[in-house]
Amino acid sequence: TATPTFNSGNSLHYYVDNTHPAATDTGNPNGSLATPRLTLPAGPWAAGTYIEVHGGSYSLGAALTFTGNGTAASPVFLSGKGTPRPVLSHSGTLTLAGSFFVTEGIDTNERVFWDAASNFVVLRNCEVRDAAQSAVRPNGTNGIVYNSTIHNIGNLVTPDDKHGVTCLAGANGVWIVDNDIYDCSGDGIQFLHAAAEPGPRNIYIGRNTIHNNIENGVDFKTCSGVIVSQNELYNHRIAATSDGTSVLIGSNGLDDQAVNVWIIFNNIHDNDGGIRVESAANGTGGGGPAYLIGNVIRDTANAAIKLDKDGLPVYIVNNTVENADRFLEQSFQQNLDIAAFDNIVVGMTGLDFSGHDVQVEAQTVAN
């Protein structure tokens, strides 16, 4: 959806610039280029509202909600302009609510939630940084996180497991595309511990760059129908709370079901671990299947693909693995169901497991 151009004759258009010498809210409900508003107009904002924000930092206080009641034909825009971006500074949570509501071009220093009833709420071309808590938290239906930079989340000195993007339990139909996510004290993207099934569902994660996080690049607990495609994931290393795996499908035993997760056509490199599948043995419904297809996994200190529990059909097809310790590892579990074919595997170092490229020790292995 293209951003409108400010029109001083439109009663639903607002022009805000707190650095302009003539800026005032007194007798100036909409603002103009010559006489901007000092502050954002009060919400909720009706369909067709366009708020153009220039200037410096806007102190918004504690937790607050922006509500844009747009329609498909008349979205609502909260649009930051200029370099550097205008800063929305707040001490709590910024919640985005309503429908067909686009927030773009802003910089914020705390976490951003989607309201549970939201629909087609978009965060794009933004920077979310220095948040003390997990930063970007889509919810509702058809949420979008696009072309944003999300970084320095949580405490990196004493890591406290805070994530860049965390879909909430009611999220359905979320797109997380073309973002740069790094320096998080937990995972780049994670969802969702101990949530009621199915948890976040129908999630597409595409063309992101996810790197230099303390734990994992992406980490899926309770969820259903997740596609991770054409992302670059790198520099995830062994730490006190992580084995340095870049992509993790599964649970730590909290009955978390990761169902129908597709890891396809990603560039996964320079990590201590490649892809680890862990969810099979938990809960009553069972996780899986998991599809690992068409990925390039290279320069991995340990196993390129590791299977941690049992059950769970896992399909390992058409991947290229180069310069890892071993291609595939699965140890000491039972009833494993693997289909692995048409992979290209070169340059295994074989430092562990007596030099084996493939290490499978399950009692029963299908396929």
Briefly say what this structure is:
By secondary structure, the chain is mainly beta. Helix content is 0%, strand content 47%. The chain contains no helices and 37 strands.
CA distance, first residue to last residue? 47 Å
**Biggest sheet, in brief?**
18 strands, parallel
What proportion of the residues is helical, as a percent range?
under 10%
Strand content: over 45%
pLDDT < 50 runs, ≥5 residues: none
Average pLDDT level: 90
Secondary structure: number of strands: 37
Q: Classify the secondary structure makeup into a structural class.
A: mainly beta
Number of helices, where a helix is a run of at least 4 consecutive DSSP H or I residues = 0
Give the overall shape: elongated
- Mind telling me the C-alpha Rg? 23 Å
